[in-house]
Amino acid sequence: MTALFALATSLMWGLADFGGGLLTRRIPALTVVVVSQTIAVVVLGVIVVATGAFSEAGPQLWFAVAAGLVGPVAMLAFYKALALGPMGVVSPLGSIGVAVPVGVGIVLGERPGLLQFAGILVAVVGVVLAGGPQFRGAPVQRQAVLLTLLAAFGFGAVMALIAESSTTLTGLFLALFVQRVTNVVAGGGALYVSAKRGGRVLQEEGGWRIVRGSLPALGFVGLADVAANGTYALAAREGPVVVAAVLASLYPVVTALAARGVLSERLRTVQAAGAGLALLGTVLLATG
């Protein structure tokens, strides 16, 4: 079940990233984050009330609050890094965030077998290559590298924190709700500050009309991201965190394949090789 939940996480995160990337071509990135997460808050709020999940409130929810604060910071750092440096450098480097939950699993006493260890190495290399690493070209700004590392650490920290935020299914609903409320508050505050400083909140042409027309897609992005967090928490609970974290981090492969299938973007040779290695690593992990 660990492999199944973790692979579902990769699928949903990959599709959410793909959808979010398309939306940011028409709507400012921070607005996409805030609106999509607000939709997720509404849906999760209904689920929490319907299941009586508020009865699961406890100190572990502080992990969800922390995840909600770290997530927007990591996302903004990642978007800023993409603006400063080549995507062929930023995207693969951002994948190393998997080291955080893997490290947590090892600290907690997990010791992968030889076959699983080989699967981890193969899968991580595959994910990095699937991002289309750029080996030649102009020098990368130090700020872009630092921001990417900050984002990677943040993404990994969210995975580790959300896995510790609940012990039951209804508790998980409440934890995800708290995380998303924190996301909206933090992201909304950043959006307000950005607007005060003259930042762009909406497109100059179309404005709210574009946002309203994109609500179904925004809802999908927000809910897919929430579902991915949920299935990752279940994967980490059902089996080794090390295995769950690596399999859940295959989402860049899904994003690349979605771009190939929907936008007819041609996969570079290095990306195709990366996708193949990621698949091989998945098989090794699942069978190990």
Could you walk me through the main structural features you see in this protein, from its secondary elements to its overall organization?
The chain is mainly α and 288 residues long. Helix content is 77%, strand content 0%. The chain has 13 helices and no strands. Helix 1 crosses helix 12 and helix 3 runs antiparallel to helix 4. The relative contact order is 0.24. The model has no long low-confidence stretch (mean pLDDT 81).
Layout of helices and strands, plus pairs?
Blueprint: H1 2-23, H2 29-51, H3 61-84, H4 87-94, H5 99-107, H6 114-130, H7 142-163, H8 169-196, H9 208-213, H10 215-238, H11 241-248, H12 251-262, H13 269-287
Helix pairs in contact: 1-10, 1-11, 1-12, 2-8, 2-10, 3-4, 3-7, 3-8, 4-7, 5-7, 5-11, 6-11, 6-12, 6-13, 8-10, 10-11
